[in-house]
UniProtKB/TrEMBL annotation:
Residues spanning the membrane: 7-25
Keyword Mitochondrion attached: no
Organism placement in taxonomy: Bacteria, Bacillati, Actinomycetota, Coriobacteriia, Coriobacteriales
Any matching Pfam family: DUF1093
Protein's name in the database: YxeA family protein
Keywords, ordered alphabetically: Membrane, Transmembrane, Transmembrane helix
Gene3D superfamilies in alphabetical order: 2.40.50.480
Statement: the UniProt record of this protein carries the keyword Translocase: no
InterPro entries, per the entry: DUF1093, YxeA-like_sf
Amino acid sequence: MKKGTKAVIVAVIVAGAAALALWGWRSGALISGTWYVRVDSRAMTEKHGRDGVVDFSGSEPYQYELPAANADGLRTTVHFGAAKQLSNGAYLKLEVQPVRGVVSWEEVAESALPPKVRTALA
């Protein structure tokens, strides 16, 4: 294989990996740890049956896409589902795993939020 051809192949692989990493970060697929959100009912969509068609976005009837912050003040957007409609304005503590997304959540008082989270979600 020629030297120039190898360089092109390596460049394509590097560009593809960079694009995949950017997609993962922007979509929230690569975040992990504890994140906090404030529920905004305007960011909720209600899912309806899909007549047996597989839906990879989750099976929960209420889907949320909300801005989130962690204890360091970093911000991102998280997507998750809930079996019930969540209380508007409530603060949630989310446990997030890479690729799997939100694996658990619990409602917390505003006073329990880390200071940088309180500022980021204000």
